[in-house]
Amino acid sequence: MKGFFQLISSDEFLSLLDRFDPLATEQVATAEGLGRVLAGDIVSPEQLPPFSRSTMDGYAVRARDTFGCSESEPALLTVIGEIAMGSPGRALALQPGRTARIWTGGELPEKGDAVVMVEYSHQLDGQTVEIFRPVAPGENVIRAGEDFEAGGTVLARGSRLRPQDLGVLSGLGITTIKVFRQPRVAIISTGDELVPPEEQPGPGQIRDINSTTLAALVREAGGVPTCHGIVGDDLAAMQATCDRALARSDMVLLSGGSSVGRRDFTLQVLEGIEGGEVLAHGVAVRPGKPTILARAGNRALFGLPGHVASAMVVFYLFVRPLIRRFSGCGADPGLVRIRAITDQPIPSAIGREEYVRVALTRTADGEPVATPVYGRSGLLRPLVQADGLLVIGRDVEGLDAGVAAPVLLLP
Q: How many Cβ atoms are within 10 Å of 309's Cβ, its own excluded?
């Protein structure tokens, strides 16, 4: 039996991630930037929208020309033209008592500062229109630069780009952006009992679940996964596979073999990395106690538990934050945290943080309620049924029913 690991707290484990730096930057096309993280502030090269425009079909007016009008005493204005979308509205200038027909999106004419909706008008003939309702300056209008002024910050460094962000950048004519490189994450499953998903397991064998699960988690976190297959419980084979994977990756995830059993070789493999060092072996969380973290330069290696449920918890708590740090975000899980009421007592032992899988419902008042989804770490059904992880502190001996507790929502 190998020596037992030394447990550190989850906060101490997370502090080790500060030893890693964000990855290099690269230029990508804006259209390909979904989910990428900006490596610098984006400053607007121009105002958006570039001109004041109407948000309604109606009549562009000088607001003062409508003051005091009503259905019984309409304002009579002379129509001097029509402004369609895409036409130069400022080619027209509104003198007192003048108006122009305008369509949604049309550019306001010179000296026009509001739009009367067509519902509150009646055109008497080709030259005169009645206005039945006054408008204030700026009503039914988006002014030039109302979204963004030239020189203003549009998006800050560290922003993860969403579809609407890409749309704004395109609207400003920004077609390339500088982003952090996405982390390349190698995934290795270990264990003599594992076979690929496409194979029929023989006696004592099971299909590899972790490779598929971890690859999806990596993509969801913003990384680029590469699966290096299954390696049996053989130290030399594991070492060779890990060395090859690390040479082409920013991070390596080895699932299985991280404990202290006779055939648990992950620690020896990580200790055998040239120029590497083991930063931690063991963290005071449940599930996930035997987690290992090592580094070689700015590359990271994790030894994860073999049970998929435990591996997923460790991923959310520690691997996902490092992927986000590599990607230019802060070293945090990036998960939404809420407070939910326990619907039953939840036992827990002092000395380790516990992450309990829970299903969430709501009371009639809309308050979140957490129901534990129990099952051993090797079972799969609880993974499908869980909506979040309820956190029980290291020095807390269980929770009573009706207690508010923090819950990390799973993506």
A: 23
- Confidence band for 263, pLDDT divided at 50, 70 and 90: low
pLDDT-derived band of residue 261, with 50, 70 and 90 as boundaries?
A: low
Spatial contact of 269 and 242, defined as CB atoms under 8 Å apart: yes
CA dist 109 and 52 (Å) reads 9
Find tokens 């987690």 and name the residue: 291
Beta-bridge mates of residue 60: 100, 115
User: Taking 80 as the threshold, does the pLDDT of residue 328 lie above it?
Assistant: yes
Contact indicator for 115, 55 with CB cutoff of 8 Å = yes
User: What pLDDT sits at residue 262?
Assistant: 53
Report the alpha-carbon distance of residue 204 to residue 199 in Å, rounded: 14
Rounded to the nearest 10°, the torsion over CA 236, 238, 243, 246 is -170
The 10s digit of each residue's pLDDT in 42-67 is 999 999 999 999 999 999 999 999 99
Q: Amino acid letter at 390?
A: L
| Domains identified in the chain and CATH numbers | 10-24+181-326 (3.40.980.10), 35-48+148-180 (3.90.105.10), 53-142 (2.170.190.11), 337-409 (2.40.340.10)
In whole angstroms, give the CA distance from residue 319 to residue 20. 12
pLDDT at 1: 41
Q: pLDDT of 213-257, one tens digit each? A: 999 999 999 999 999 999 998 999 999 999 999 999 999 999 987
pLDDT of residue 6: 83
Question: Which of 246, 126, 136, 89 minimizes the C-alpha distance to 183?
Answer: 246
Distance CA 138, CA 143 (A): 7
Torsion angle, alpha carbons of 352, 333, 318, 392, to 10: 10
Question: Read out DSSP for 170-225?
Answer: HHTT--EEEEEPPPEEEEEEE-TTEE-TTSPP-TT-EE--HHHHHHHHHHHHT-EE
Distances (CA, A) of 154 to 39, 157, 171, 179, 374: 13, 10, 12, 15, 46
Distance of alpha carbon 120 from alpha carbon 98, whole angstroms:
16
CA distances from 401 to 176, 366, 371, 404 (A): 53, 18, 10, 9
This prediction's pTM: 0.86
Three-state secondary structure of 291-314: CEEEEECCEEEEEECCCHHHHHHH
Q: CA 18, 19, 20, 22: dihedral to nearest 10 degrees?
A: 50
More confident residue, 279 or 5: 279
